Amino acid sequence: MSLRDRIGRAADSDIWFSFKASPVTMVAAGLTAFIFLAALLAPLLAVQNPYDPASLNLSDAMKPPVFFGGDWSFPLGSDDQGRDLYSTILYGTRMSLFVGLCCVVVAMVIGITLGLVSGYVGGAVEAVIMRIADVQLTFPAILIALLIDGVVRGIISVKRHDEIAGFVIIVSISLSLWVQYARTVRGSVLVERNKEYVQAARVIGLSRWLIMIRHVLPNVMGPVMVIATINLGVAIITEATLSFLGVGLPATQPSLGTLIRIGNEYLNSGEWWITIFPGITLAALVLAVNMLGDWLRDALNPKLR
Amino acid sequence: MISFVLNRVAQAAGVLLAVGFIAFSLFTYVGDPINAMVGQDTSQQEKEELREKLGLNDPAPLQFARFIGNVVQGKFGLSYRTSDPVGRLILERLPATLELALCAALFALGVGVPLGVYTGLYPRHWTSRLLQAVSLIGISLPTFLIGILLIVFFAVILNVLPSFGRGETVKFGWWTSGYFTVAGLKALILPSVTLGLFQLTLIMRLVRSEMLEVMRTDYIKFARARGLSNRAINYGHALKNTLVPVITVTGLQLGAIIAFAIITETVFSWPGMGQLFVQSVQFADIPVMAAYLLLVSAFFVTINLAVDLLYYVVDPRLRGSTGGRH
Questions:
Q1: pLDDT tens-digit readout, A162-201
Q2: Among B140, B163, B164, B292, the residue to mutate for chain A (most A Cβ within 10 A)
Q3: Residue B225 distance to chain A (closest CA, Å)
Q4: Chain centroid to CA B75
Q5: Which helix (H) or strand (E) holds B176?
Q6: How many CA atoms lie within 13 A of B115 on its CB side?
Q7: CA count, 13 A, side-chain hemisphere, A44
Q8: How far is CA B199 from the centre of its chain?
């Protein structure tokens, strides 16, 4: 198919139509694209590198935003360490998005693998995996993530923990989110596995793994992608919450949640901007991503509307 | 009926046992309980003796049985951080969390149900649409952000409500209550609203969709044909039938409220179990984490069990051969 045909087909599809018919979704998509772009280009857009302690000056600390008595060198004010808030928010958004995306991908890989295996292999393997999933589903994701984070802190020293905090947080959030994928994939696999194309593949003599990955997996990816989009918002919120609680990313590598926690300590003394601007950014990001997810779910599955 | 109940109880016990095993493994294998109990200058030999005395060299199943035995008696060991008995630490903070959770649940129900009924009865009215849109934003915003916004508005700008602590409390034996003083009640407002807001939007949306569903059914049309007043139809017939799912969802959400109290308590420096848990995670205080995990899961499992059984009582359709809700 030529590129032109592809574009033509995409423009003719239901999804594009439903996209065009919903102004809210278009605004959400625009906002998401804008935030993603800003996060991606953060090093170019920022006026200073907040990760570089040499560029910081403590005498610049606590400057108010430009329209509240500050000056243009710190358009959104500065925080307690003299970091320019505008640059810090750009880098923080980058961090939040990066961690969020990583969590979704890792959770997806774990969930799909376990779901495929339990759906296709069945038996005791399935029983064990699905029982674990049931038990885990009883507890809110944030509790599981907190618990895993605490256990990791117990195993390694606190100093080592700061170095690998990003990694730890991705693991803990991913492990708290895999269940939904596993259940969905298992359900779809149970349906797919008795269809003719799978039987045909088996007759040719393909191995179990090849059938699972090359033939069954592509057919169960639709619902998985919808969950992934919705989960991105959940992952970003969970990371922000953990960072806010002080068990997420450290202040040296702040995400939006860390920035809000730092600012929260100064809220009562009048320096509101350190909390409010990262807060608005986080709210806008999550809202836009959630709206896109909702729309995608409705567009791909009209039955749910 | 009996087999259904037994089945559910056995499942609940299984979950609790599994959580107990996780808590036990954390307690025994993550971090060394001996190191937390003795000083720097204790010799290796003394440590070994203590280890033997505490039974840490016994086979794992025996230790597990002893652990469960202790837990049942409320003995959770000593906190690594403060060296206090964990049982007492948690008991001290239990009232704060439970009072907050109760207030939040009442707020969610008391505001959520009427709003849901209203938006369900007049779905096309502009106030209903506005409420729907606002509730979507409410669901999307992280809890801690809502808390901070409330603090900025009511505590910093208007300066009418306190932003941290429980205010004044009254002691009844070991239970401390904030319900009987003005300062205590004022301190409850912002945290309860923060904690209950998510459940409020959830209940509102649920009641709304159930109302929309019920209003389309034949028995409502028939009630109209009989000439019953709108009031009797809306509240006597329609609302009554929407409340079954609301009861179950609220029950299940009680667990979520307890869990999300972790965040609200941190935002408002509320001296409850959730704050204790966050501190214990920061300091890798394993005994407190294990005890909290056990307590919360016991709570969750009990609620789930109660809701399952309640469902069985309320909804006769479930009394088939298989039973149970999936």
A1: 778 888 889 889 988 899 899 888 888 888 888 888 888 8
A2: B140
A3: 31
A4: 23
A5: strand B175-177
A6: 23
A7: 5
A8: 11
Query: Which CATH number applies to A23-304: 1.10.3720.10, 1.10.1200.120, 1.10.510.10, 3.80.10.10?
Result: 1.10.3720.10
Q: Which residues of chain B are under the pLDDT cut of 50? A: 321-326
pLDDT category of residue A294 using cuts at 50, 70 and 90: confident
Residues of A in contact with B24 (CB under 8 A): none
Residue A72, pLDDT above cutoff 70: no
Residue A305: what pLDDT?
Answer: 39
Residue in A246, A264, A268 closest to B282 by CB: A246
Structural domains of chain B in order of their starting residue, each with its CATH number: 93-322 (1.10.3720.10)
ipTM > 0.85 for the complex? no
Which two tokens mark A200?
A: 């045909």
Spell out the domain ranges in chain A: 23-304
Taking CB atoms and an 8 Å limit, are A272 and B156 in contact across chains? yes
Q: What is the pLDDT of residues A116-157, one digit of tens each?
A: 888 888 788 888 888 888 888 777 888 888 888 888 877 776
Chain A CB contacts of B140 below 8 Å: 233, 283, 286-287, 290
Beta carbons of B281 and A135 less than 8 Å apart: no
Nearest CA in chain A to B33: A154
Most A CBs within 10 Å, among B25, B79, B145, to test the A interface: B145
Q: Tokens standing for B220?
A: 């409502």
| Chain B residues contacting A via beta carbons under 8 Å | 15, 18-19, 26, 30-31, 137, 139-145, 148-149, 151-152, 155-156, 163, 255-256, 259-260, 262-263, 266-267, 277-278, 280-284, 286, 289, 293, 296-297, 300-301, 304
Task: Output the pLDDT for position B191.
Answer: 92
Q: Are B233 and B225 in contact (CB under 8 A)?
A: no
Q: Which run of H or E residues covers position A56? A: none
Dmax (CA) of chain A: 76
Task: Name the 3-class secondary structure at B170.
Answer: strand
Does the structure show a pLDDT above 80 at A302?
no
Question: Contact A165/A249 with Cβ under 8 angstroms?
Answer: yes
Task: Kindly list the residues from chain A whose CB atom is less than 8 angstroms away from the CB atom of residue B149.
Answer: 279
Cross-chain residue pair A287–B141, CB shorter than 8 Å: yes
* B152, closest residue in chain A (CA to CA): A267
Q: How many angstroms from the chain centroid is the CA of residue B251?
A: 9
Q: Do A245 and B289 touch (CB under 8 A)?
A: no
Chain B residues with beta carbon closer than 8 angstroms to that of A275? 148, 152
User: Which backbone phi and psi does A120 adopt, to 5 degrees?
Assistant: -90, -40
Q: Which ranges constitute the DSSP H helices of B79-229? A: 86-121, 126-140, 143-150, 182-215, 218-225
CB B150 within 8 A of CB B194: yes
Q: Are A278 and A256 in contact (CB under 8 A)?
A: yes
